[in-house]
Design a protein that fits this description.
Layout lengths: L2 E6 L3 H12 L4 E7 L2 H11 L3 E5 L7 H9 L10 E6 L4 H10 L3 E4 L4 H12 L8 H12 L17 H11 L4 H8 L3 H15 L4 H11 L8
Parallel strand pairs: 1-2, 1-3, 3-4, 4-5
């Protein structure tokens, strides 16, 4: 199946470069571009992409506000693509908020071309881009910049089995499915089953939201990742 992508970035050369790179892949089709967040929302609504590459800092409407509009559409709009934020180290706080809003992950804008292609495929497949070591460091920085979380029974952690709680903690530490399987001495398919149950029980969309949940519930604390 072809992955439909739009690129939202205020730099024309960045959009052109990303578009050329992605369009050269046999399984990726670039169906639209936009120079700012407001236009990005409009293009997303009209082209129905699978993945939106969204820059954080843009005029008119920044990437965070645009991601919120795309991921929380008004009544009658049923299409919700995956959003992959493009960022640099100096906008970590924006990215944390984007993950809370439902973005599926983020990628450094100076990442190698192969990382961008892989990121689009990972996000399109329904996974969150939270495995790379650089992401683990960023997630830890997000949590460290905020007050220590407090455990709250309303966050429904008690609904998880001990194994599911353990899996959630390892997700928040940035481990991939394979790494979790090796750590717990389980089959990778069993890990996927546990993750599916965790997301379902907690009402979470994907792994990105699971990481945020784990920090905000107090299951994982700054420095654990």
């Amino acid at each position: 199946m072809t992955i439909r992508v739009i690129i939202v970035d205020d730099q024309a050369m960045v959009r052109a470069g990303f578009a050329a790179l992605l369009a050269a892949q046999p399984d990726i089709d670039v169906v639209g571009e936009a120079p700012d967040g407001r236009a990005g929302v409009s293009v997303a609504r009209s082209t129905h992409p699978d993945v939106v590459l969204m820059d954080v800092r843009m005029p008119e409407m920044d990437g965070l506000a645009a991601a919120r509009e795309i991921l929380s559409p008004p009544p009658g709009v049923v299409h919700r693509p995956k959003v992959l934020m493009l960022t640099t180290f100096d906008v970590d706080d924006y990215v944390y908020e984007a993950l809370r809003a439902g973005a599926s992950g983020f990628l450094l804008k100076d990442a190698p071309p192969t990382d961008l292609i892989a990121a689009v495929r990972v996000v399109a497949a329904g996974e969150a881009l939270l495995a790379p070591s650089v992401t683990r460091r960023l997630i830890a920085d997000f949590a460290a910049s905020r007050p220590a979380p407090r455990k709250d029974p309303s966050l429904r952690l008690n609904g998880l089995t001990p194994r599911e709680t353990e899996v959630l903690e390892l997700i928040a530490r940035g481990l991939s499915n394979q790494e979790i399987a090796e750590h717990l001495v389980l089959a990778e398919q069993t890990v996927k089953t546990h993750i599916g149950r965790v997301l379902s029980k907690l009402g979470l969309r994907d792994r990105a939201q699971a990481v945020i949940f784990a920090y905000e519930s107090g299951l994982v604390t700054p420095g654990d990742a």
